[in-house]
Amino acid sequence: MKPSKLFTLLVATALAACAGPAPAREAPSALPVPAHGVVAVEARYLDPAHWIGRLGAAADRPYLDEAAIARQNAALVADDDSVRDVTALPATLERAEVAGWIRALSSRPEGERYDAAGTVLPASFFDALESNLALDAVPASQATRYGLVVRRADLRTFPDATRIFSRPGDTDIDRFQESALFPGTPVVVAHESDDGRWLFVASDRYSAWIDRDAVAIGERDTVLGYARKSPSLVVTGATARTVYNPEQPQVSELQLDMGVRVPLLADWPADRAVHGQHPYFGHVIELPLRQDDGTLALVPTLLPRTADVSPQPLPLTPANIIGQAFKFLGERYGWGHSYNARDCSGFVSEVYRSMDVRVPRNTRDQSVSPALDKTLFDESDSHVALMAEVAKLEVGDLVYIPGHVMMVIGRENGTTYVIHDTTGISYLGAGGDLVRMPLNGVVVTPLEPLMSGQDQPTIDRITSIVRIR
């Protein structure tokens, strides 16, 4: 879910927020609480076939066709300020623009921060971070450089890998973890840190610091043309991994996450080995590789034939939305794509990306994007009105509360069910006391009984409902 730096509020909010609503005091006690403690969730609800089967013929009816998806994606780039078209950046970058990007992200925290041992980080630590930004070294003008990401890599607030926390012991939320980029992502390289170990890059949905070894610098046409190569394969599993090979470690057992697209070398000679392995029993794909001098090379490698991939994005149908979402069920929650996983907004983004639907990276931007079909709510909307909107939710709808997003998968016995990547939920127990259930993963829960506090149903905190249509 990678919101903004308002997250002291958001974790308090999203911890209760990722907790959810209850329409009335009587409802929670009417719903069963199994031994596992997750209210109103049965084993059959963890099977995507249960939810797909309830849809009947509508399960495979596309919400949007390819042309409509392409138009919506184009509108996202044109109308949403949180999304950048890196192909449209000028051939020259000016100092004011680059320094502005960096200052907008790399701001010194106002309160105390702690390391993993719970020790307060001294002012000298942050002085060193600011010095490593090397803002004085940003040239007055520079030729725009391009690169391809060669491995899944973290995006950081500062050019530093130190994990930083708001409170001692609260080590799941690294305050300097922004997001992650995946192999084949094109970036503009705008600056480098004083120690030379980090690059400040601009991608389509995020600008931040990345380990320089994760980026290979190449010619503009080569970098931007990589994503347009055809034929290609789209990763439709939660992840896929290239085949192990002893010859080129950079592309050996490389993780490709859901929605990543890679060129398929369909004309590779049928009997020509790839890194010593016969290609017939896999897919020969092309991946970016960072050479010793930091420049880009495109090299063949193998995906096993068993990899969950498709020659094109999946159709945008209710069945595919549910099926793709459930491929992440049980994955550990990873704030800002940490823990080699993802957070709530990353989760919904990658599910939809496997169907070629693009959305902004953060919950805040997703919930208000001018390119998406949405209904916005505020404090003036009553509980009754919000409940009426919840009753109209359909499969794939995205429900937003501050700092969190949930994806609707269906309705059972009059209760709405969602799948979401969350730290935990809260609900009222049989005695009326608030029960907090830590979850820290991709889970299925009901919507109506969830609470954001003793007296506040999470439904009352809904700020937006987005419908991909």
Based on the model shown, name its key terms.
endopeptidase fold (from Nostoc punctiforme), hydrolase, single chain, 469 residues, 5-stranded antiparallel sheet, Papain-like_cys_pep_sf, 11 helices, signal
Note down, in words, how this protein is organized.
With 469 residues, the protein is of the alpha+beta class. The chain has helices at residues 7-17, 26-30, 48-53, 66-79, 95-105, 123-132, 220-226, 318-326, 344-353, 363-368, 383-390, and strands spanning 92-94, 141-143, 145-149, 153-156, 177-181, 186-192, 198-202, 207-211, 215-218, 232-235, 239-241, 255-257, 261-263, 282-290, 296-304, 309-310, 373-376, 398-401, 404-412, 415-428, 434-446, 451-453, 456-457, 464-467. The strands form eight sheets. It has a six-stranded antiparallel beta sheet. A five-stranded antiparallel beta sheet has the order 8-7-6-3-9. A hairpin with a 5-residue loop joins β14 and β15 (296-304). It is globular, with a radius of gyration of 23 Å. Mean pLDDT is 94; it is low at 1-29.
